[in-house]
Specification:
The protein is α/β, with parallel strands linked by helices and 344 residues long. The chain is built from ten helices and twelve strands.
């Protein structure tokens, strides 16, 4: 992958789990680098007693299990449970898999931190459109841009195929979205997310002490500030009924990039969310290489909606519903009661 992607802010759900047959660890030099980086840059670095962490690491040398536990605690507490260490072997393995998927013309497989059953299209009033935005992760590689473009195009195609002109409202289902890369998600759902047909539109931001880094959607791409992150290569699909009402469904599995997508809809006119609170990792990461070839998923920013609100915690739906059936019923009832559907 071009070096510019190494510092791109991500919404990446990952774990620090090692295979059952071995304990994978950074080298001693990489361990020191990792802890220094966490203390200097991690979002919740004040939650950790760093001298104690270093003392425990030194005392644990020669005991891989204890070293793993100390590092896992340091990463977990300083990231709010969102960061991770990724071994060099795993980076290489996933990069090869990513390259094979691209060569075969297929998108990279979805990444699920928690197994979630596939979501089948529900039975809805024919006036209501429905799109499920599931988890999707890519490993940094030369194929990343193409994979983001392919996945965003696929989601836009699902919207276009339903948009016959009779749809008066839409459901965006994020209940099975356990995270991954947020950029193709935002671009894929752009026909529903954007409320203007022309220039770029702010749909969210990453908050920092230096001010917000805004998520910008244009007709053909998604940007972080002025920097293009994912690009369709041409203008994307435009909804026949621009600014149609949208119901967003969330649940306990909605995490990371899924939460970014939910936040992007918050503050959009004619939009309401239904379901259960999200997982609570509405924070963003950067991927940093370590000296031994392994990588640190470093949590650095809090996500915000287009109005500047966001605290990095669970996202509460506008209307709480428990079961899947109740969530769909409530979303559909609200959509059909909106002016766009009432006389349709």
């Amino acid at each position: 992958m071009p070096m510019r992607f190494r510092s791109t802010i991500l919404a990446l759900a990952a774990t620090m789990a090692a295979p059952a047959h071995a304990i994978e660890l950074p080298t001693r030099q990489a361990q020191i680098e990792l802890v220094d980086m966490l203390e200097r840059e991690a979002l919740y670095r004040d939650r950790v007693d760093w001298p104690e962490i270093r003392a425990r690491m030194s005392a644990a040398q020669g005991n891989p299990g204890k070293i793993r536990d100390v590092l896992k605690e340091a990463v977990g507490r300083s990231s709010g449970g969102h960061g991770a260490w990724i071994s060099a072997e795993r980076m290489r393995r996933e990069g090869q898999r990513s390259g094979r998927a691209n060569a075969e013309g297929a998108a990279a497989p979805d990444a699920r931190a928690v197994p979630v059953p596939a979501v089948d299209p529900p039975r809805l009033d024919p006036r209501i459109g429905w799109v499920s935005i599931g988890g999707f992760a890519i490993v940094p590689s030369a194929a990343a841009q193409q994979q983001m473009q392919e996945r965003a195009s696929r989601w836009q195609a699902a919207i276009r195929e339903q948009d016959s002109g009779t749809r008066c409202g839409w459901i965006v289902d994020l209940r099975g979205n356990t995270g991954g890369n947020m950029w193709p998600m935002l671009l894929g759902v752009a026909p529903l997310l954007r409320i203007t047909a022309g220039d770029s539109e702010t749909v969210g931001a990453f908050a920092s002490a230096n001010g917000p880094s805004r998520w910008q959607l244009s007709p053909s791409d998604v940007r972080l500030g002025t920097r293009v992150i994912a690009d369709l290569g041409k203008p994307g699909y435009q909804l026949k009924h621009t600014a149609a009402p949208v119901a967003v469904l969330t649940g306990q599995h909605t995490a990371s990039a899924g939460e970014a997508t939910a936040l992007a809809f918050r503050g959009r006119p004619q939009t309401r969310s239904f379901g259960e609170p999200t997982r609570g990792v509405s924070t963003a990461n950067v991927l940093r290489s370590l000296v031994d070839g392994s990588s640190l998923v470093l949590t650095t920013h809090v996500m915000q909606d287009r109005t500047g609100h966001g605290d990095g915690l669970k996202i509460e739906p506008d209307q709480h519903t428990r079961s899947g059936a109740a969530t769909l019923a409530a979303a559909q009832a609200w959509l059909l009661a909106q002016p766009a559907c009432a006389g349709h």
